[in-house]
Automatic annotation (TrEMBL):
Organism: Eumeta variegata
One Pfam family hit: RVT_1
Molecular function GO terms recorded: RNA-directed DNA polymerase activity
Metal-binding found in the keyword field: no
Protein keywords: Nucleotidyltransferase, RNA-directed DNA polymerase, Transferase
Domain Reverse transcriptase: 1-106
Family matches, as InterPro entries: DNA/RNA_pol_sf (IPR043502), RT_dom (IPR000477)
Keyword match Nucleus: no
Domain of life: Eukaryota
Protein name: RNA-directed DNA polymerase from mobile element jockey
């Protein structure tokens, strides 16, 4: 064990302000990818009509963000990270699900 020489207690009212100042210079992607920050969460997103257009642009944005994170010695938790692809094409697919799957109505 060793003493902590930096930071503030978790839940401190000062934490959000310090975090905002810390990430104020986070690079904005140059490839048309959008960057969204909320509290300690970061999202990169892009809209396109082809996944072939999306992947290289997102990868470049991820590489740029990774360089900045390494510079400031910040880690990404892979267990809390995800990639999601939404497809709004008119072609619909039937996917079989188990009979006991609950039905949610909105």
């Amino acid at each position: 064990m060793r003493p902590i020489r930096a930071g503030v207690p978790q839940g401190s009212t000062l934490s959000p302000l310090l975090y905002s100042a810390y990430v104020n210079d986070i690079p904005r992607p140059l490839t048309g990818v959008q960057l969204a920050l909320f509290a300690a969460d970061t999202a990169l997103y892009l809209r396109s009509n082809s996944i072939g257009n999306i992947l290289p642009k997102l990868q470049r944005a991820i590489d740029e963000l990774t360089q900045w994170l390494r510079l400031w010695r910040m880690d990404v938790n892979p267990d809390k990270s995800a990639s999601i692809y939404f497809d709004y094409s008119p072609q619909k697919f039937q996917i079989p699900v188990p009979i006991d799957t609950p039905i949610y109505a909105f």
